[in-house]
Write a structure and sequence with these properties.
By secondary structure, the chain is of the alpha+beta class. It is built from four helices and three strands. The chain has helices spanning 3-24, 29-44, 49-61, 86-119; strands spanning 27-28, 65-71, 78-84. It has a three-stranded antiparallel beta sheet with strand order 1-3-2. Helix 1 (3-24) packs across helix 3 (49-61) and helix 1 packs across helix 4. It starts with a helix and ends with a helix. The relative contact order is 0.13.
C-alpha cells in the first residue's frame, strides 16, 4: 500500500490525539511522547520530538493549549507543562463529536463493501 494514504490519516488525527492527552491532565512533552509510543506506536509509528513539538507549538499559537514553566527536579532546569485552554477544550469536544460521526460514516461504507466482497 502507498504510505501517502496512511500518512494523511496519521497527520489528520495527531492534533486531536495530542489535545486528548493534554485534556486528561496537565502534562509535559516527554510524558506525551512516552504515552504516544506506549499506546499508539503500532499504528501511529514511533512518535518523535520533531513531529510532536511543532504540533504543540501550533496548538499553543492557535490558543488551544497553554504552557507553564516549572523547575525540573532532575537537572535543575525547567520543564514545560501543557494544559488545555477553554477554547482547546471546546475544540476537542467538537473534534470528538465529528470524529464519532466520521468514523460511523466510514464504517458504513466499509461494511457495505465487505458484504459485497463476501457475496462475490
Amino acid at each position: 500500500m502507498d504510505d501517502r494514504y496512511i500518512q494523511q490519516f496519521k497527520k489528520g488525527s495527531l492534533e486531536m490525539i495530542l489535545l486528548s492527552l493534554i485534556g486528561r491532565k496537565e502534562t509535559y512533552g516527554y510524558e506525551i511522547l512516552t504515552e504516544l509510543n506506549q499506546k499508539g506506536a503500532e499504528v501511529l509509528g514511533f512518535a518523535k520530538e520533531g513531529t510532536v513539538y511543532p504540533i504543540l507549538y501550533r496548538l499553543q499559537n492557535a490558543g488551544l493549549i497553554q504552557c507553564r514553566l516549572a523547575p525540573a527536579a532532575a537537572n535543575g532546569g525547567t520543564k514545560k507543562y501543557y494544559s488545555l485552554t477553554p477554547q482547546g477544550r471546546e475544540t476537542l469536544e467538537e473534534l470528538t463529536q465529528f470524529w464519532n460521526r466520521y468514523k460511523a460514516c466510514v464504517d458504513r461504507f466499509l461494511t457495505d463493501w465487505e458484504k459485497q466482497e463476501v457475496a462475490l
